[in-house]
């Protein structure tokens, strides 16, 4: 059948993508450049564009075109594009506008108040706002669950990690919970017997920035299509043609910004290498949050903290911060691989990180499915922190259940992506090593491009053509298997 | 009559203003932050938003509301807002969408390529892009001219300086051409007999930037609602709530960036002090490009290069660049008021500046009216430069006809605003001096706020409530009169 509806969809999604471009740049500017007085006008401008995008996407014509295009003679890629278009349409069109607006208002209110409430450890002030966000997120989950025929939590999970389910996560995470606590304890014990030297600061911001740019260069970041800037919360934003990554600098600590930049460079290279022939179309987008995180963790953890990479980074570090005893290869590797269970997820090492995620997953799933209420969170948080990491957060809300921004604006279902990403990354690195017999020689020679080419070939260039499960199976020869993550941790830390 | 249509118009223009906000920030980013590879996607995104804005503004409903609102019971300010809405509607509704989009794309392409072509003196590369821009601008001018019943060039002039005509400019510029060349020669001769000392560089960019920020502070720039950055061609952009000014630095020259910043600060203070109660509405906009330029020249020329201001700036200069012999007050004033005909408009002193503008006015008017072609520009440029300023630009495109950004994206009709601005500024300063008997004492004491308050009272707070002619007459007691400009130049330089 002739193509009539499909080209209309392509044009609609191209328009939406161009508007998203402006909203991405204005959002980046808001976090990096905007003076405080511009905040209200910027918020109004972005909200106005958001309303317009929602109207364009949920227009009845779009639904009708999607139905009609189903019957049209499409290539395999076009059919994948149509599948992703339908996904975007269903996701946006399911919710009544009143709920979208109520969620946005409640989320804004909760997040805004949280910024000071967290500083003041004010759970009593925070809880009523969070209850309202939870109430609306449950409403959203119920609508999505009914349409998809799945559980409420699964319906939210699907927004960030299409195809993933709570049942699958339970199996994966049960496996992690079986071996990770003892492995963590072994690593901590082992490292206790071999202390390492701390680098001596201060580390001036300008030199740290310069080092970050150098690392980005080693990692193949395309500076013709991207930038590095500063924001309170690091992120990778912008558009594939112009990727904006950010970090924050602490002049007492050279590692935090450096590995933050390496992490965001992983996100950035994925974006910069998405299929250009599908630019602006849903099939050209990154596959999922979990796959995105797999790329940042591939760069930060698999490659970035390996001796092979660190030996090539060290000369640049010594050049900027002096030839300190802490900057021998052995010490610097040991220091980059230090494991120390702590309260804060974003500061966690890769061995203790999954415990933070599993704890949040278990709580947010029970919360959305209605098995617990907001009042139950602090108690559960403390119980699980004690169980998984041996730390108590009783009464310490700011470093406990109030530390993350995600729940404040209703981002339930996002947290599992972090640990899925860590598992995908380990499985991908193992597959790359099998596929590239000379990989270690290349890495030791500072030749990282075979590894990046393998990622381009197997992940980046595919955008959203395949499901996550298909993509992973094609790249690695098997489904997601947490053994690769365990093998990675065992090989590196024990 | 009840108000029905007018509130709809207010909502429509509010939406348009929010979209303009995003386009202003994305445009600023393009000039200051964007890496070159982002150019095409950004151009497409801005063009897409431009098309949307054009559709919203030219919707038949808007035309009908404007007609209906005419009969409604409006306040005087609302009526002025309606007048400006009609002006915006008429201006936009005339052009077919295809032309708007083609102009935006061709302008983006030409401007972006110009950035490197100018550096390479590449007229051959630049000319074909410019021809396309000229072709589309002529098309635009023809459509506007037919609707307004005026000449093609007048139709473009009216976009930037409503109410102004080529015939009026011919009279004003003929007057300038009568007395300015001899005045210029007299000044040059006079200054030749009294050479001044050059400040000794280099002047590091970071210190120049810091000095610029200091000058902005003296001049009342609100840093809570604005920034200073770097771009190839200095401008004042952003939105009233967040004004983005730019400059460029030459480490051998401390004056150029400093007075550039002072100039843009004049634009910025106008924007930052537009009537907040009319934010987002046409009546809340700055009156015209000429009035805008009058504010920047008021800051740069009338105030900025006066001994009264310079004595207060000098300590900051000495602090950053040493207590050089060139930084005595007498020498620094003489140096800031040096008159030297040169190639570059933006570096020109206020005595030779009008020659640069008249040259461009004569060329662009002939170009738009079809009397000359793009190929004729370099020859005419050389001829007029020799005639007005005694300088040849033969083969020197980068410092000749390729030096300005204006024509690259079709801004024909803009240049006269600069010299209209200089004349308005002289007339305004003279009126302020009459209105504020203690002005000189205040300025000598470093108290600039009475002068700024006078500008706020007489210019800034009015937005577009009055026509330019009304605004100038209310502020100064008479119509535009080039005598004030002559008197200013005579008093300062002879």
From TrEMBL, chains A, B:
Pfam families: Peptidase_M32. Its cofactor is Zn(2+). Zn(2+) binds at residues 263, 267, 293. Keywords: Carboxypeptidase, Hydrolase, Metal-binding, Metalloprotease, Protease, Zinc. InterPro entries: Peptidase_M32_Taq. It catalyses: Release of a C-terminal amino acid with broad specificity, except for -Pro. PANTHER family: CARBOXYPEPTIDASE 1, METAL-DEPENDENT CARBOXYPEPTIDASE. Belongs to the peptidase M32 family. The active site is at residue 264. This is Metal-dependent carboxypeptidase. GO terms for biological process: proteolysis. Transmembrane segments: none annotated. Coiled coil: none annotated. Its EC number is 3.4.17.19. The keyword Secreted does not apply. Binds 1 zinc ion per subunit. Broad specificity carboxypetidase that releases amino acids sequentially from the C-terminus, including neutral, aromatic, polar and basic residues. GO terms for molecular function: metallocarboxypeptidase activity; zinc ion binding.
């Amino acid at each position: 059948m002739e193509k009539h509806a499909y080209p209309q969809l392509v044009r609609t999604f191209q328009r939406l993508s161009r508007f998203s471009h402006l909203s991405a740049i204005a959002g980046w500017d808001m976090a990096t450049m905007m003076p405080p007085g511009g905040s209200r006008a910027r918020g109004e401008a972005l909200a106005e564009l958001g309303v317009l995008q929602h109207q364009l996407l949920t227009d009845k014509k779009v639904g009708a075109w999607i139905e009609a295009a189903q019957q049209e003679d499409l290539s395999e890629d076009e059919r994948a594009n149509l599948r992703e278009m339908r996904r975007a349409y269903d996701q946006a069109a399911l919710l009544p506008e009143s709920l979208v607006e109520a969620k946005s208002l409640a989320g804004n209110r909760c997040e805004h108040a949280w910024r000071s409430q967290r500083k003041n450890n004010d759970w009593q002030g925070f809880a009523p706002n969070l209850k309202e966000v939870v109430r609306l997120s449950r409403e959203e989950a119920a609508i999505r669950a009914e349409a998809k025929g799945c559980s409420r939590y699964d319906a939210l999970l699907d927004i960030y990690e299409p195809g993933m389910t709570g049942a699958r996560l339970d199996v994966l995470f049960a496996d992690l919970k079986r071996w990770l606590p003892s492995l963590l304890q072994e690593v901590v014990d082992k490292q206790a017997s071999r202390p390492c030297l701390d680098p001596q600061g201060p580390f001036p911001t300008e030199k740290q920035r310069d080092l970050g740019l150098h690392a980005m260069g080693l990692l193949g970041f395309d500076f013709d299509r991207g930038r590095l800037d500063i924001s309170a919360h690091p992120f990778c934003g912008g558009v594939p043609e112009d990727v904006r990554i950010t970090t924050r600098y602490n002049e007492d600590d050279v590692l935090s910004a450096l590995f933050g930049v390496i992490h965001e460079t992983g996100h950035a290279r994925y974006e910069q290498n998405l299929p250009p022939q599908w630019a602006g179309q849903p099939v050209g987008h990154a596959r999922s949050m979990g796959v995105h995180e797999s790329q940042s963790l591939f760069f930060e953890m698999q490659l970035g903290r390996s001796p092979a990479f660190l030996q090539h980074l060290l000369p640049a570090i010594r050049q900027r911060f002096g030839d300190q005893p802490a900057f021998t290869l052995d010490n610097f590797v040991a220091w980059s691989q230090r494991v120390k269970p702590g309260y804060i997820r974003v500061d966690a090492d890769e061995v203790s990180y999954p415990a933070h995620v599993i704890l949040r997953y278990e709580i947010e799933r029970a919360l959305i499915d209605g098995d617990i209420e907001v009042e139950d969170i602090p108690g559960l948080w403390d119980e699980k922190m004690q169980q998984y990491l041996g730390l108590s957060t009783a009464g310490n809300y700011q470093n406990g259940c109030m530390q993350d921004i995600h729940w404040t604006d209703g981002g339930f279902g996002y947290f599992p992506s972090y640990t899925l990403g860590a598992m995908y990354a380990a499985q991908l690195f193992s597959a790359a090593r099998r596929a590239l017999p000379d990989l270690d020689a290349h890495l030791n020679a500072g030749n990282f491009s075979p590894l990046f080419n393998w990622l381009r070939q197997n992940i980046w260039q595919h955008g959203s053509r395949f499901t996550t499960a298909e993509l992973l199976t094609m790249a690695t020869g098997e489904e997601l298997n947490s053994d690769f993550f365990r093998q990675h941790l065992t090989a590196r830390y024990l």
